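User: Hello, beginner here. Can you help me understand these amino acid letters and fold codes? It all follows right here:
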Amino acid sequence: MSDETRSSAFRPLSIALFAPLAVLLTGCGGPNLIERISTASWGFWGTVIIVLDLVALVDLLGDGTRGTTSTVIWVLLIVFMPLLGVILYFIIGRD
């Protein structure tokens, strides 16, 4: 499979993964992410974790050599366990 074909086949997967992620980050019925960041209790480290999560997700979804199952597992791990997921991804997930 050529790189161009692989890239075009990867786009629907990345869209399918980013849509639920956007819903999760906007709060799913609770306060949205912008409101959470604006509160005093959010703090510097909350912002750092969100930025690292987004960097890890962009790096993960930009990797065309990884299989779909592996990508989905890493996305779920990073989204549902932000601190542990991003630490594990940067230590063992970036082959």
Remarks:
- DSSP finds five helices and no strands in the chain.
- Residues 3-25 form the longest helix (23 residues).
